[in-house]
Amino acid sequence: MDDLDKEIIYILQQDSKITNAQLAKEIGLSPSSSLERVRRLESNGIIKGYSLILDKEKIGIECGFLVYIKLISIHKDTVENFIDIIKDIPQITEAHKISGIADFVLKVYCSRVADFEYLISEVLGEIEEIKEVRSEIILDTIKEKEPLPINSEVTEYI
What we know:
alpha+beta
């Protein structure tokens, strides 16, 4: 991945709806060369996809939570079973395997607190692999869906 690829990635993270002609102009390449680079980044799995960002309030999502899950064991089968189950729960928008106070942290969005309570007690509460559930309400989102840093050196941002 060279500097032009990094520039393409940066631009697409800012606006994935940009036309190829606009992208080519911004990076100083012909449209065919620009498109070839984007397709190569996609085929190599560097660009995994494109997404849509919704305004949660305007679609009736009023509550966000971080849910910390401790499993009964970290045995491979236990972890895989848990992952298979939570993949199908639409209110769980992110799931991360972590170290420290829990085994997983989930980001959950619900329309109402009552819906979250149902999710915790009736959905997650029925998963045999779960030993402990802790949750925190998201009061405000300061930063969300930000572009990934192409240059990982922190000193460049200080």
